[in-house]
Amino acid sequence: MKALFVNGSPRKNWNTHKMLQSAMQGASDAGAECELVHLYDMSFKGCMSCFACKVKNAKTHGVCAIRDDLRPVLEKAIASDVIVMGSPIYFSFPTGMMRNFVERLLFPVMSYNVNPDGTRPRAIDRTIYTASIFTMNCPEDLAPKMNYPAIMDAHTAGLGIVMGYTETLCAYNTYQFTDYSRYDANMFSEQGKAKYRDEHFGEDLQKAYDLGKRLVEKVEA
Description:
There is one protein chain. The protein has about 220 residues and is of the alpha/beta class. It is about 35% helix and about 20% strand. Strands 1, 2, 3, 4, 5 and 6 form a 6-stranded mixed beta sheet that branches. Helix 1 (about 15-30) runs parallel beside helix 5 (about 190-220). The radius of gyration is 18 Å and the shape is globular. The relative contact order is 0.19.
């Protein structure tokens, strides 16, 4: 049982990373062999539209043909039983690094062919249980007004279709700085943000733990 955790945040030991660590602990406690990778430690691009993965009788085996820092991670991903991705929300979207990762992960697995029964073949013959963890400064009650649910759904829809299963977990109103007085950010109340963090982030971490544990248990079921 292998579980891969992918950090799409440039920050380590902060909100997204902590959520992934908690999910990883849950998966580990459920019996999975876990690994965490940081996308911002690597040099890679998004899909280059080379279509090497769509050439007839291609030998890519469901892995993007581009050989760069991301290639070994993609190989680990399609060999995994569980993949959990984490990203902060920047200007209403997951980070560019996370989007690049998802493009390179999904496109080689999906097929442009259609079977006689209307189904579409995939480069892998099993379900990979996936999840996306999103952390954001936006309060939960404001998220629908920002159209965040639709944006999250657009990001995760491909994961469910191509990999066979996906879940989404959001952590709202996250604490951004260690010292708000250093930054031009007077629209926020440091005391209010700290209070919300103290009251809710522990619950978010527990939800992440439960998520990691649950995905591994689904593989074993």
